[in-house]
Amino acid sequence: MRKIPILCLILSCPGVLWAQDFGTKTAGTQSMNPDIGVVMDFTGRFTSGFRKSEPDANRFKMRGAELIATQYVDAFGRLDFVGCSDGEALNVEEAYATLFELPLKTKMRAGKFFMPYGILNTYHTHDLPQVDRPLVLERLFGGEYGDTGVEGSWLLPNPWDLYSELTVAMANGDRIGSDEAVNMTPPSSGIWENTGNGDWKKRAYIARWANFFPLSDEASLLVGGNFARGVNAGNGSKTTFGGVDAKFRYVWPDMRKFTAQAEQIWWNETQHFVDGSGNVYDTPISPQGGYAYAEYEFIPKRWAFGARADWSGQRLFDPTAARYNDMSYEGSAYFTYTPSEFQRWRLQYRYSDFNEDGMKRHANELLVQATFIIGFHPPHKF
Predict the structure, then answer these.
(1) What are phi and psi of 320, to 5 degrees?
(2) Which residues of the chain have pLDDT under 50?
């Protein structure tokens, strides 16, 4: 008899049942409210050698505080926002809408986002598998490559029923990364900067073809190919780069995990420069670089250790010397402790062996990282 009043109370509140049903189609338990999360990424860097002159050497740093918000607009689209601050202003890092349920198993997004190039370029800094980004991404991209544009993805049909996705993006063609990516290059020869408002021929085009292979119940492999092309400001020459990447993962029955990942990038561009005497230099350069790392999670979802090797040429502009293919190297070893999915601590040793301007320079560094998350945080792809 006591159950009847409770049942009547529930039936008299249709809004409760409506909210639960609506939530399953949109944003879970929060109904019409977006899922919101905050991330704090704190680092410390202790340096000896030539890198002591860098701005964040031998200092603690609040590297980033991110505000994340996401919500399904309806059954056909979702809106994502990521704002990031390094302690001063809050900048829009990503803000884009994704459309689903399109013909031919396609989806589309439009807005500002990290371009679909390689594996790590789409990772936010706090989500990287190591404290720092690989040397080749810092040198050639200035960190990460993000822009404003549109992107379409298509699951390619194949007789093996494997996951094969082709992603193509068209962006404004603004500079990749920051000024640091071009070192001493004059602004007029910066890549993809101010490439002509109103001229659709001077956009940047990016493509990625990713293929996933389930090798066994425990092992899986991701293999990708990448291509990008844009028009330089100043002289209208083309900047083209491409590469390949692969990621292998093995998971034991007790959830211990081994991961190996590598990327390689090949770059080609012409740097245009006119000196004070009127001499014109159109210097073709072709730096290349990559990285490879391996990580073993020996206590599932708690403790892991790994090592990474980096190699990269440079985009340093010098019309009197061709040193663009001089390779610099880094080697890293690290431990990661993850007490929960909302907290992570990392300790990393990094050795740098740089070849710049014909000089060999070395540095030893100890990097520490603490990352904390409250609220919602989207998972990454494999």
Answers:
(1) -95, -5
(2) 1-29, 178-189
Alpha carbon distance 72, 75 (integer Å): 7
From 275, 198, 282, select the one nearest 238 (Cα to Cα).
Answer: 282
Tokens representing 41?
């990424």
Distance of CA 194 to the CA centre of its chain: 23
Q: What single-letter amino acid sits at 294?
A: A
Q: At what angle do helices 3-11 and 14-25 cross, to 10 degrees?
A: 60
Up-side HSE of residue 28: CA atoms within 13 Å toward CB? 6
Report the amino acid identity of residue 330. Answer: E
Question: What is the model's pTM?
Answer: 0.84
CA distance 90 to 376: 19
Class of domain 34-375: mainly beta
Q: Where are the domains of the chain?
A: 34-375
Radius of gyration of the chain measured on its C-alpha atoms? 24
Contact 23, 30 (CB under 8 A): yes
Q: Looking at residue 19, what is its pLDDT? A: 36
Q: Which residue has the tokens 């298509």?
A: 154
pLDDT in tens, 289-321: 999 999 999 999 899 999 999 999 887 655 555
